[in-house]
Each structure stands twice: as structure tokens, then as C-alpha cells.
Amino acid sequence: MANDSYHRLLHREYTDDSGSELLNEDADMRKYVNDPIHGYIGLSPTALQFIDTPQFQRLRYLKQMGSSYFVFPGASHNRFEHCVGTSYLASSVVQSFMQRQPELEITKRDLYCVTLAGLCHDLGHGPFSHVFDNEFIPRALPGVSWSHEQGSEMMLKHTIDQNNIDIDDSDILFIKQLIRGSVSGAPDEKMFLFDIVANKRNGVDVDKFDYIQRDCYNVGVKSSYDFSRLMLNSRVIDDEVCYSHKEAYNLTEMFHTRYSLHKRVYSHRAAKGIEYMIVDAMTIANPVLNIAGAVYDPNLYQGLTDDVLRDIERSREPELQEARDIISRIYTRDIYKFVDEFIMPADLSSIANRKHINEAAIVGFRADGDDFVEHDILINFSRKHFGMGSENPVDHIKFYSKFKINEKFSIPSEMISMCMPQKYQERIVRIFTRSPQKRRQIQNAVRRLIAQISTRIQSNSENTMSPASLTPNRGLTIPDDIEDMAKKRRLDFSTK
């Protein structure tokens, strides 16, 4: 395993001269689970107080990668094991600092709170993970700002109350702040502790260490960065987690791997089409099942998992027939289809937005004989980046050298590699359709709209952007006989 060396060093560092383990709370009462990413993980009685609850066990029924499981069969892992892995890494990092830098005066309370923050950071995820808070909630509760982090805070309090877990209010507040990665309102806490679970400074945290490695492992994507080296070569300087200068390229690879997963896996065209189907089904069912209302009631939220699709299927209410039909289409692979996409330069954000590219605008470019309507069209505006928008996240990381381990400094990108990207963010407009038989019509209309936008760019003398950037991708052009080709493939398959 890639991080075996880290486990061996961890064992040496966390033992005293007599060989007894330091900081090992009730060692003889620990339980161990064998994790495919981290090996054997010891679960302390403190962690088990939270794990052995209905609220935490709910995470077994939330797919870590949401709708991607319908495309990548290996993506069957859940938020449960991710949270256990994140907690293990969070605890390991803090204990490493305690051993190697006693001057930090890290307390058992610090270790306790950071470990629980890692364990409980995803308690608030809804069905199909980010599909719920990024797509469903904005449609079901327009104008309401809600995130899974808020859900995690709600469910953390609910878990503690319902299971009579003895924990101070000040610790609960600290754990919530660690989950948010917010240092506001925590002037008496050690600021570097906020870099561990949800790092808002530069994005290097154990949450990413776990989910990047776990997702790559399960979907079969090779990862070229090594998180165990990052953990071994980190130390706290001036209240900030810093890394050895030797890890600069390793960190670059971590952010590139994150981008690659978003590009190739998380936003896969078929997975995105299925995601829209799940959102449609839940939106139709919402007035009957009150799915969105659960975000205000932890008792309802506790029962809200990916099984909501099965709840809709099992229902007999006539109002849910349309939702049941959509779910049936997922199983029979009659999914919403990808139509087209355009990568928009960042300086065209004033044009590449919903004001200019929307369902009504596309319908306005229908040709004679086209019969698609606005409801047939789905438009997705997204940004793909390395973790910090248009900026290189490595520019926000501080490093140290082996010669002066208590002095931190930045490393410019050109000193890491001359082959570094020149841009770290892309804006993508993608078009999908609920009616696969109309995708050729819709693509033609979309491209006529984009051609008009390109003409507008050319006529703008202040804009030096080449209109070639909006040229349609020939590889995505849908042939006129697409339906005949699909029928032929089905016929060829059925005769084999």
C-alpha cells in the first residue's frame, strides 16, 4: 500500500521509550476496521459513540459519488467509509504534530475535536451527495441558501442530543467551526487546526487526501500524487501548516488529480444526464414526500438517503407516476442525453451566462419543422478549476527547507516546473435534453445561437479574444441519421 511507510513511522512516533502507545484512549477497548485505503483503522470509544448511532449509520446509504455510480460500477463506496477515513487522517496529523512539535502545546481536547470534525464533516449530505444541495434544493427551495455543511451542523447537534453524548457546548461549537473551516468567532483556538479538515487557506486538507485516493481507487483512475509524503513532510510554522519544499510538485499533482476527477468522472456526461433525472424525479415527488422540508427537521433528515428513489418507486400515489416513469427510464438506460458543450474563455463571462444562453434563446433559433420546446432543454453552467478558481492553489501554500525548518516561504510556479498550466480555471456551458430524439434539432439551434454570439464578439473591437474559441467541437456534431444509427446498433446487438 502506498502509505505503508507512513503507518510504520506513525507506529514508531506514537510510542514512548517503554513501547506503550501515547494518546491511545482506552487502547484495549478500541475496535479495528480494515479499510482498503488506509489499512487497519483503530476506532476509539469516543469515535464509536458517534459511529454507533442511527444518524452516522445513515451515511452507509449515501453514495460518495452520487449519480456517478450509474456510470462507474466500482463507485459503490459510501460517505460512511469516507468519514471514517477522514477522521483517521485528521487524528494522525494532529498526533504527529503533538509528537514532533511539543512546543505547539496541542491538547487532548484539540485532538478530540479535530478527530470528531473529520468524522462528522459529512453528516449533513443529502441523497446522492452534491446532487441534493447543488441541484435539488435550489429548484425545490428557490432563494434559499443551504449547504451540506449546514446540514452537518444540524445533524451533529441532533446526534449528540438523541444519543445523550456527553460533550461540552464549547467543544460542539469548535467542532462546527472546524467542519466549516471558519476561524471567525474562535479567537482562542489554534489557527493551524483549521487547516486540517477543511482548509480554506489553500485547500490542502485530509478530506481531499481521503476522497481523492478513495475515488481513484474505486473507479480505477490512477493517481500520481502521494498524500502520505505530504503528511510526513508537514509541520506548523507561525500557526499555519506548511510543507517541505520537496513536496511542491506533489501538491501540484494533487490539485491536478482533483481537476482530472471533476473533468473525467464527477461531471461525466451520462452521469450528469442521470443526475438531472434524479433531480426531476425528486422535484415532482417533493410536494407529496416533503423531501426539501427535511433540511429544517433533523428527525426527517435522518431518514433521507439515496433510498428516496426506491420510496418513489414503491409509492402508489398517482401524483408520483411521472416521477416513477423517470426512474424507470434510468434503469432502462433511456436517459437524458448530452447535446453539446462550449468551453468559454473567462473574459467572456459577461456573454456566456444565463442572460444570453437560456432555454428561450435556444428555442428562438428553431428551424422550420423543429418541435422541441423549452422543457426539452437543460443548460448547465459550470467551472472546472484546481480548487481556488482562477488562481493556482500552490501559490497559497507555505513551504520550509531542511536547513531552516521554522521559516516559511512561497515557491513561484516557475520554480516548480516550466510546464505548469497558464490557466487554472475553465467555464463550460453544456446542453442536455430530456427528449433524446430531439437532440439533433436542439444542437443545431444551440450552434446557431453560439454563432450569433461569436459574431457579436467579432464586432466588439475592445475584445481581443479569438472567436475560434466558440467554434463547435466537430467531434460532438450529431449526424442527421442518429436515430437510424441507434436503431441499427440495437438490431445488431439483438441478433448476436
TrEMBL record:
UniProt-recorded Gene Ontology molecular function terms: dGTPase activity
Start-end of Polar residues biased regions: 457-474
A GO term from the CC aspect: nucleus
One Pfam family hit: HD
Entries under SMART domains matching the protein: HDc
Start and end residues of each stretch annotated as Disordered: 457-481
Domain HD residues, every copy: 79-212
Residue ranges of coiled coil: none
A GO biological process held by the record: dGTP catabolic process
Stated name of the protein: HD domain-containing protein
Organism: Coemansia asiatica
